[in-house]
Structure prediction request, 311 residues.
Amino acid sequence: MRVNLMIEGQESVTWEQWVDLARATEAAGLEGLFRSDHYQSVASRTERSALDAWVTLGALGAITERIRLGTMVSPTSFRHPSVLAKGVVTADHVSGGRVELGMGAGWHELEHTTYGLPFHDLGTRYDVFEEQVEIVTRQFTEERFDFHGQHYTLEGCEARPKPRQQPSVPLILGGVAGPRSARLAARFADEYNTVFPSLDAVRERKGRLDAACAEMGRDPLPLSIMTGCVLGADQTEFRDRAARLKERSGAEGDLDAWLDGLRDEWILGTPEQAAERLQAYTHAGVSRFMLQHQLHDDLDMVAVVGELAGS
Prediction:
């Protein structure tokens, strides 16, 4: 089973913690370590800090040996596509060809206004996103090209070096598989990711994505999910860890009621319970999992998540 650790880096994950998490991910036998790409807490906790995603991943690529490294996802509102592509290729070379690029249109308005980044209406953000996906993909794969779009113009672009991975760095796009998103993924992506889905949502979104791929004349894309995860070696450890996460998140009320509100979408419980849940998602069409570990200073849970990789 393809299981990856996913860390919300904008919630004050320090460099020392990134090193510990990467080493724990390798030791646990997980496929990879993915991280968000935000400049500010998505809980609007402005006192929290964020290290840059691609600088972090490039540095981790130099001190790890096996795990995949990537973003879930890099907003196209943060960087010019040529800057993004150059950073990704650099990290790919540093890691020996182990990075993956997740791309999105950007959604967290506060971090944009705080840092002075453009935050257009949704339609414009998606127009920018589509142009960036094409530019980045072509810089990875084409020797020379021109691009004339509404937002970007490139003349005689010869992006070198190419990625270590051939034919390209894997590109992950995502969403809820709406018409525009599914069409773009069917044209460019190597994988489609959807977040916090129920089993029914997985089936519905996969159906729409498969249909878009068929219209494009290509085989169905692999479907992955990113979702929350709280595990314990036994029920006591699980409930203790869940209580700590509930407190950190600021949620109110009874622990059992809080957990009941998560069960349709999160991976919860012991490794045996989690493996059963992941098998259900696999039968629904999911190819791999990005499990979000929000207690990033708890390395013991990384080892528990690793038990799922061999299930």
Remarks:
- The mean pLDDT is 97.
- The chain has three domains: 1-63+222-311, 73-169, 173-219.
